[in-house]
Amino acid sequence: MTVEQRLRQFVIENFYVSEPAELHDDTLLVSGGYVDSTGMLEVIGFLEQEFDVRIADQEMTPENLDSISRMAAFLARKRREAAAGGPTVAAAP
Amino acid sequence: MCGIAGVVLLREALPPPRLEDVGAMIQALGHRGPDACGAYRDRRAALGHTRLSIVDLAGGQQPLANEDETLWIVFNGEIFNHLELRGELEALGHRFRTRSDTEVVVHAYEAWGDAAFARFNGQFAAALWDSTAETLVLARDAAGVCPLYLAEHEGRLWFASEVKALFAGAPGLSRALDPVGLAETFTFWTVVPPQAVFQAVTELEPGHVRRISRGLGTDRAFWTPRYPAGPGEGFQGSLDEAAERVGAALGEAVRRRVLQADVPVGSYLSGGLDSSLVAALGCQARGGRFRTYSIRFEEPEYDETRYQRAVVELIGSEHQELLVRREDIAEAFPAVVEHAERPLLRTAPAPLFLLSRLVRDSGVKAVLTGEGADEMFAGYDLFREAKVRRFWGRRPASALRLRLLERLYPYLARSPVAQRALAREFFGRDRERPHAPGFAHQTRWRPTAALQRLFSPDLRELARTAQVTARLLGTLPAEFGSWVPLAQDQYLEIRTLLAGYLLSSQGDRMLMAHAVEGRFPFLDPELVELANALPARYKLRALREKHVLKRAAASHLPPEIVRRTKQPYRAPDALSFVGPRAPAWVGELLGERAVARAGVFDPRAVARLWRKCRAGSAAAQLSHSDNMALVGVLSTALLHEQLVRRRPERRAAPELGTLVDRLGEWPGSEAPLQRRCGP
């Protein structure tokens, strides 16, 4: 299962999407009404647990998290940083 | 308060109303008025009444009439200035048979017509039948404390205090749920009158009169909220003068509501500023034994016991507490929905349902409550949030202005402002249009409307095309744009939530489920006019809510109550319905077959929600949307079972203490001649 598929399954299950076909990889989750401002806490928790990353406060932005494709790109970037010897665990806020 | 019901013919050729229909309506409203009931009928109309005796215990039976018995009334509520009006009416030559405030309404209508309703200081729903002009007049108080529902069916107009009475009177009336009503509920948290959640039903708007004459109906507003249109308008005095005026007006409002009763009046006490002030003033007005009632919760997030007890100690009331646990909420919830008659997105009405039972069991029939203060004096977080968002929008790059958002929700375990960048996205929407109508409310309406993704595909499409937000914003008064932003926000809050949710689902319905009358000093018309006339800075000073009210309260309450951060009244939501103690009906109603049968929600989406709530309950990881979603789905399912799918057996009215049947006076009628029973 690809990262996008895992993310997609999580969003469908946890934000009770009735028509999964309507949820595209670039659908905006917050402004699209799928995830509310506190629901994003769940998304962050899932990413940290499922993909073994730590997300710093400054990384909790719509640019990183507000769609499946943005989350996938963000995770890929985190992995590249880790492979290049960058910090896998972000500094505590 | 009481229950009223009735029917009027809209076409000439129909047979006269049947007493058994009105009797069934009265029976359906029996919980509202266990003390007596009565009915009136003639060739074209019938009125029914079930009474909760509070004023003129001996002589207040209804229906009541004017001197020559051409004008009949059934009335639900109280007129707190009825003694003043009575004197005025007597001077005009009107003669009274009783001490009842209801009789004042009859003569006031004779004297002043529709203009009478604006002269009442009270809370009411009234139906007046002018048998000479064959005109029915329905009226509802300015704030909308008392409910009044209408339905047309087979050439007749039915009206009643509750929807279930309409269904009892006209069994053929469609019970189908209304897509627009559901879309409104899953946007504004409630329907906005005149919209109802049943297709065949409408609700008379607060502050309105409907006149039905020879088949034609017209609506007219006798009161709508108004705010200063410029700095030269409204209250011009200092803050100290305003606080003094507010204190005096509230004191008088409380005094009227404590003393205008022939039974003891108690008070709810949440421990917040509003109910504490009302309780303290009530105790003063009573000048002796005074009862207060509070809800306690096991969860510290909701519990306010410490503050309640501090107030009790200060005012010396006879206090009763009710500890409400999650399982109590779950157990009461079916009855709560059956009384609310609409979907609910919060469980907050349930503890109030249980508290009204405690009040009734203690022998008290009427209680003061602090509701309305947040609307009139800008107490809600929404007002503070909008102020910050507008302030920040004037300089969007300012990180300091954005950080003001963090001061808004300190009481929430999962704060919507916890992630600053995401909060910027969420609260920053529309910031280029800070004066657009609905700016303040969109942060609440959008996430709620997003729950419509749970709807079945057909309903989702109907809800989408209904465009309820645009519809609501299209009905704003012409002068709306001339008001300051806070006044606009207050107006929309009042328009959407006050009557439709607060005074109904948390007020009238939960109180009257156990025949307890709520009295609302903060909705006293004179106090409301004063509050609306005050400058915005007297109400919301920086981010300090209800500033002028706190100043007025300082001489009545300890500083720890006056200065405490506002804690909105809430109760455990989704977590009441999951876990080992959850009742079996929850799972049954959320099952695929039951969800499909109701046709409102998509069974797959509900299954996902239910799975999430059960899993999330273990770690208490449920968002505000999850909580609203589960409570909304469950309450809608209950509503469907109780009022749509199930057709209760029709039962006759209890014994009528008053029956005026004038059908026999019509030539050629086969009905019995007029008879009168009871006192």
From TrEMBL, chain A:
Query: Lineage from the top down?
Result: Bacteria, Pseudomonadati, Myxococcota, Myxococcia, Myxococcales
Its transmembrane ranges are none
Checking InterPro entries in the record gives: ACP-like_sf, PP-bd_ACP
SUPFAM superfamilies reported in the protein's UniProt record? ACP-like
Domain called Carrier: residue spans: 1-79
UniProt protein name:
Acyl carrier protein
Residue spans making up a coiled coil are none
Automatic annotation (TrEMBL), chain B:
Q: In which pathway does it act?
A: Amino-acid biosynthesis; L-asparagine biosynthesis; L-asparagine from L-aspartate (L-Gln route): step 1/1
Q: Where is this site: Important for beta-aspartyl-AMP intermediate formation?
A: 371
SUPFAM superfamilies annotated for this entry?
Adenine nucleotide alpha hydrolases-like (SSF52402), N-terminal nucleophile aminohydrolases (Ntn hydrolases) (SSF56235)
Ranges for domain Glutamine amidotransferase type-2: 2-215
Example of a GO cellular component annotation carried by this entry: cytosol
Amino-acid positions noted as binding L-glutamine in the UniProt annotation, renumbered to this chain: 101
Read off the InterPro entries from this record: Asn_synth_AEB (IPR006426), Asn_synthase (IPR001962), ASN_synthetase/amidase (IPR051786), AsnB_N (IPR033738), GATase_2_dom (IPR017932), Ntn_hydrolases_N (IPR029055), Rossmann-like_a/b/a_fold (IPR014729)
Signal peptide positions (record) = none
Q: Magnesium among the record's keywords? A: no
Task: State the EC number(s).
Answer: 6.3.5.4
| Binding-site list for ATP | 295
Sorted alphabetically, the keyword list is:
Amino-acid biosynthesis, Asparagine biosynthesis, ATP-binding, Glutamine amidotransferase, Nucleotide-binding
State whether keyword Mitochondrion applies.
no
What does the record give as the reaction this protein catalyses?
L-aspartate + L-glutamine + ATP + H2O = L-asparagine + L-glutamate + AMP + diphosphate + H(+)
Which Gene Ontology molecular function entries are recorded, alphabetically?
asparagine synthase (glutamine-hydrolyzing) activity; ATP binding
- Record-annotated active site: 2 (for gatase activity)
Q: Name one GO biological process term.
A: asparagine biosynthetic process
Q: Which family does it belong to?
A: Belongs to the asparagine synthetase family.
Which protein are we looking at? asparagine synthase (glutamine-hydrolyzing)
What is the scientific name of the source organism?
Answer: Anaeromyxobacter diazotrophicus
Q: What is the lineage of its organism?
A: Bacteria, Pseudomonadati, Myxococcota, Myxococcia, Myxococcales
